[in-house]
Amino acid sequence: MPRSLIIAAAQFASAIGDLDANFAEHHKWVDAAKAQKADLLVFPELSLVGHYGAETLLDVTMNSRDARLLELSRAAGDMILIIGFIEEGPGAQFYNAAGVYKNGKLVYIHRKINLPSYGKLIETKYYAQGRFVDTHEVDADWRLGLLICADLWNPALTHLAFLHGATLLVAPISSGVEAVGDAFDNPSGWTATMHFYSMMYGAPSVMVNRVGPELDLNFWGGSRILDPFGHPLAIAGQEPELITAEVDYAEVRRARALLPTVRDSNIGLVERETNRLINRLGVPDIIRNDD
């Protein structure tokens, strides 16, 4: 039988570059989510280091199986955690990463692909680019499509996540009011984006932002959980807050029967036209054959 999933989103301000303080904060939110009997708890982008944590890059980067991460997951029991941190990968490459943990183990990791270098965002200065869009199977019904912040502003990446079978879109973000410029309304943009993806692909979604000031940016919160028709189930304000909502796979089935976007995506046509574009533009092999 289709089953439901209780999703929790922890919205708060991270201490810039202070791993000890941020791990202690994470443990508090884990306890709060356990009290709500959450199956899945999502933290904001770079929740363990802060938006500007990379300013002290070598002091805050960690292996994805760091003992402190695994301890946090063990404290959560059966609850799945999605945690944001700076991962040190092979060859001293540093990634803006979101790790999926359960029962004291890393079960999946996403490395941010679309690294912004515009407005007040300078992530290409610090991070290597992720190379893959994939999904993580929770059970027979629920498959996570996990993308980080600006990844969702490249619609092709989100489309790929759903073609890989995602039935739940998870979006840890770090969105400051001033990040792009005065003419761009970040809160309204994210409201429209999350509504569009849930409605278009018939999938619940959870977006988790941070709050408060960090240097020259002010983070507006607004974390939200949506149903597969794009209707909000829970929306946070501008202060630290835990929001929860229950999503039902039966509603995913109903939404996708009514609007079969994934079914009608025509992968063969997309592949053919992408290859035609690559050949016309002469995209270098180092990009075409990235594996």
UniProtKB/TrEMBL annotation:
<dbReference type="GO" id="GO:0033388">
    <property type="term" value="P:putrescine biosynthetic process from arginine"/>
</dbReference>
<feature type="domain" description="CN hydrolase">
    <location>
        <begin position="5"/>
        <end position="249"/>
    </location>
</feature>
<dbReference type="InterPro" id="IPR050345">
    <property type="entry name" value="Aliph_Amidase/BUP"/>
</dbReference>
<dbReference type="Pfam" id="PF00795">
    <property type="entry name" value="CN_hydrolase"/>
</dbReference>
<keyword id="KW-0378">Hydrolase</keyword>
<protein>
    <submittedName>
        <fullName>Nitrilase</fullName>
    </submittedName>
</protein>
<dbReference type="GO" id="GO:0050126">
    <property type="term" value="F:N-carbamoylputrescine amidase activity"/>
</dbReference>
<dbReference type="InterPro" id="IPR036526">
    <property type="entry name" value="C-N_Hydrolase_sf"/>
</dbReference>
<dbReference type="InterPro" id="IPR003010">
    <property type="entry name" value="C-N_Hydrolase"/>
</dbReference>
